[in-house]
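Sample intake sheet
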Amino acid sequence: MSKIRLNGTTSGYTELTPPAVAGDNTITLPSGNGSANQFLKNGSTAGTLGWSSMSESGGNITVNGNVLSTGTITSQKASGSNAISCIVDGTSGSDVSTLLSQAGSCTMQLTTYGNQYAYLTASASNGFNIGNYVNSHTSFLTNNTERARITSGGALLVATTNDNPVGGNVTGISLRTGGEAQFSCSAGAAGYFNRKTNDGKVIEIWQDGSEEGTISVSGSTVSYVGGHLSRWSQIPGIDPHDKTDRPEILRGSVMSNLDEMCDWIDPESGEPQANEQLNKTKISDVEGDKNVAGVFQSWDDDDDTWVNDFYLAMTGDFVIRIAEGVTVERGDLLMSAGDGTAKPQDDDLIRSSTVAKVTSTTVSHVHPDGSYCIPCVLMAC
């Protein structure tokens, strides 16, 4: 077998050896001159070589005139296949100039037929980012199964594609852009909160930037601090969908139980919603009323459909309404005065008509009719 060997000036060599098979083998070199440092490639005919679009210059590889360290790699297979673009260095690639605002960023674009769809970006100043250019969601998968997604509106969903899993009665977690969090599970607790090392707050409840209450633990005791037990109730005989039909009920007014149950209609099925325990109430109109239910707290304006709903404060710290000219002392037990206000009992016995105990004579609010509210501990249930 014949060989051609080219020896180096000092040592080493390059050797060409024909294949050990029958027949002739021809290598045809390009007929034209290539550029400096240009690479060879297989020609269109077997046994021929041609100049490729790749060359080397200054330690960089250039493809179709684009330097890989600061340019774009575009891979396009047969018609109908996907293309992949890689933008390296934020100073290049006008199609992502708004995305890459500084040099030193690295972005990979995923495109189809030249249309931008998604990208991965990393930079020293902005960290690692994943995004898309279209009005669609971005999904995160493991084992080829979607586990989480960010919706086109910005909600983060885990184990669901529904941004309202509670209302949709499906399992999953939704963190909405407005700060709302929903947790829904098929069985067991939907949330777990654990404080290690020592006793104290487990959950803080804030309103408008101020802490209003907490759920705390001390030993084996859990305390809800800064609140009272309340429930929903309704006023009979008014349009449940018309706010203008609401009667005026002053905060802290004493309310009385009725046999009529609260009613709500399921908006999807049109059927009445189940209600075993929530009854309607009215302003107490009996002096010493043993049928007291609690005191009026406020209308439930979070619900724009059922505007007849209100919160009835029942047990714990709150305020109660006292008529103008009525004097109370700290420690007084209170009963209904028969006009929506409360008044002191004649004795210190807790009865079925006892609605509250005065904790302070500090006036928190005065109503237009001269009645006023003071702190108390409610005992209505």
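Comment: The radius of gyration is 39 Å. Confidence is low (pLDDT under 50) at residues 70-102.
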